[in-house]
Give the backbone structure.
Amino acid sequence: MTAASLALAVAMATAAGVVGCFAVMRRMTLASDALSHVALPGIGLALLANVHPALGAAAALGLGTLLVWALEHKTRIATETVIGVVFSAALAAGSLLASGEELIDALLGKPATLSPIEVALGISAAVAVSAFILWKRDALVVSMVSPDIARTAGIDVARLDLAFLLAFAATVALGLRYLGVLLMGSLVIIPAATAKYLARGLPSMIAISVGVAVVSTVAGTLLAPRLHQPPGPIIIAVAAAFFFFGLLRPRRG
């Protein structure tokens, strides 16, 4: 892996760590993993049309996110329930559109040589996502605690929810080529779950989550060639190890 590709992987992991904290606090643990599967039909269509799979994945995630947000605010059904329905439909459609080795690559990821433009755009998107979440962290916390108080404070809760879902979708899209639709959601959730157990406040939670995500990504990337395995499963295994070792530490009150 080149230095530029590693830099993109670290930027992606940083965004995953930041977004994951708020996904965990919003109780989107299972929904976060399911949302990554929405990219599958977009990847299938892109392969059929001979265009870049990342474009199809991003388009599918964007449309899926808008659909989830619209259904949630129209029906008042919980976010994780709506995502579960959309995920099931997307998984079925994606399985029909992609097959064989292409489907395995989409599910588990297949790192490849990236062009300078892809690296630049990816790092820019990761920085933008991280900056947006950190900028809006207070509003996100208030809207989670009490939407009514948030509205009284002048926060447009519906628009903020949409912006967060889009930021989450962008984070998933950044890691799909590297981790695939099965594993990218795990990189968002596992470091944040570890941080939630160990941290005593939001700043430390974000710092621990980002640290676990970045270290897991770098360690998995370096270990994968030596183990003759793709990096995705190794990265998630390292992140899971951090989580279980974290449980050995007594939790502070």
